[in-house]
Amino acid sequence: xxxxxxxxxxxxxxxxxxxxxxxxxxxxxxxxxxxxxxxxxxxxxxxxxxxxxxxxxxxxxxxxxxxxxxxxxxxxxxxxxxxxxxxxxxxxxxxxxxxxxxxxxxxxxxxxxxxxxxxxxxxxxxxxxxxxxxxxxxxxxxxxxxxxxxxxxxxxxxxxxxxxxxxxxxxxxxxxxxxxxxxxxxxxxxxxxxxxxxxxxxxxxxxxxxxxxxxxxx
Length: 218
Hints:
Elements: E1 2-6, E2 13-14, H1 16-29, H2 37-41, H3 48-58, H4 66-79, E3 86-87, H5 91-100, E4 104-108, H6 113-122, E5 129-133, H7 146-155, E6 159-164, H8 167-176, E7 179-183, E8 199-201, H9 207-216
Parallel strand pairs: 1-4, 1-6, 4-5, 6-7, 7-8
Antiparallel strand pairs: 2-3
């Protein structure tokens, strides 16, 4: 069995608008002002706990308020995580095509598993993914390789290709010994050439050709 495993935020979905909205609702509820979109977008990728750490630092708030703000953020975000979020163009067709070609598909993300599954279901693509591991599923997050390896194991895959958008995903794949394809239109913080990858793309119409070539070469 060959598997294609995807990151979520910045790879399958552009979720920054909903995350930004939930952050500002949490801050407003606590009378702590707000943050602009690009600032919050730059905080995405290391999981929700790091997101809140960065929000606290950006607003110069007391670090002891982390639990309070995390609770408020999750309350607003979990209420409807797919209001402003969109699939990147071509994702639906790419996922359907790969599934139809017999690949086992999975998701490995630092987003908590609950909202991850809710988002996949909201877009009607949850049925294509045989395994989902979120940032709270096994107790460790990317770039630790354990979540990615857990998805591969759950899928029963002999070989796998990981598709992500960031240096975090690249490091995770490298540590797991899994080939990595970089989606260049997501939330990366480093320049493309500074992120280790074996293939890269900016259009999901290219995914089938790229990952098939990568999987067949293993």
